[in-house]
Amino acid sequence: MEISEIRVLMKYEFHRGATTRQAVANINSVFGIQVATNATVARRLKKFRSGDFDLSNEPRGRPKAQVDHDVLKATVEANSRQSARPGLENLKANANAKQWQQILGYLSLTLPFEYTLPIIENGFYWERQCVMRWPSSETWRYDNNWKTMLIERVVQEAIEDFMPESSDIKELEDFLRIFQDYTFRLHIKQLQKLNRKPFIVDLTSEDFDSVLDDFIYKPEVHTSYLDFEMLLGCLTKLKEFSFILTPGSLDSDSYRLSITDFNSLLRSLRKLEMLEKFRCSNGVATNIQLDILSREFITHKFLKELNMSYNFIDDGSCDAIGQLIMSSCPLEVLILRYNKITDDGAITLASALSVNKKLRKLDVSLNWIGNKGGTFLAKVVSKLESLEDIDVSNNKLGPKAGIAFADAVKNSKCIRSLNIAENRFDEAVGQKFSDAVGENSIILHLEIKFCNFSTDDEDFIHRVLIQNRASVTYATYVLEHKRVTASQYII
Question: Which value, in Å, is the radius of gyration of the alpha carbons in the chain?
């Protein structure tokens, strides 16, 4: 027998006005065996009375969640603890996709992050959080990910707005630990400084030993800023850390790291074993401190980008950077923009590059490199097989160095981007670059502004670059040059 036949009989008995017991007896008498029970017939007759005459199978398993959205909204707004983590987990488990989105529209924006972060994925709820705090147009800085934007901005503001003299450092530590399992970037642009005198030790003091012990075992007592070791110890999964304090005055001592502050920063960096990008700029560290940082990264297993731009790095500091270049560190991008590197420093860096097979980008723009250092660097670059992007703009390169870089473009098999803008070249160098570019089909970007090239050479170089870019897709070019516009691709 078919179950559909039995349900047809149930419908027939319903229209006859039979009771449940009468319907069961009549149906079983038709088949001669018990095919209907009181419970089954009663459930079906109840559906008929409600106007539902559908004879198909009823859905099995867990019933769909029935959410009264008015009640939910009132409950959540009245008491945010109703939506703590266990409650959120239950709501998400019992709601379909549409219902869950409606729930996220009602959730209070003041719920603790320790409850919402593990459960709510990127989307509408985090968009609401961000729009409430900052201009929504800034989401592009975070790969259009609202949750990432929320995490990075909230952590940054908590650190930058912390008042060491009036706030409890333990509260900040507990707050940062909420984000310790998330991978994100940290950019610090300002810190509140303690009003402390620099740490000075009187070597003739009778209690020198106790002072020294205090300095070693309790360094945070003498720091002018936050305890970086505690700070970054809560965020050990950071992939990118940028430390750029904005100068408050022309007096570098007013914002530069003291010995104790730098030691705290150094110990904290040792805990960031997964760090891939690090930036220390604006002269917050002395050259000696930057040397120590460079040597510290020699054994780092993941660091791919180091940015020490806008400091006071001179030729002496290039020795430590050269050791880093020659080390086993997987460094791919080195930015030394706006420093005090001259010919000797450039030669030191170039010598280190000659044994390096990993570095893809080198930026030494806005330095004091002249013909001697530039020529040596160009000759080394022409033989490298990994360096694709070089920026030597705004230096003191003359015609001799310009011709050397033209030869590098002609002979190199890997240079795809070269910036030589605003150097002391002449038309003869422009002719050399025209000849070099004409024989190079892989270079895609050559910046030659204010190089005193002739109009014909500039026009020829641009047309060759357009032809080279046409050989690769726009998508490929954009991947190699982040945030490039369509006009930059064509022109």
Answer: 35
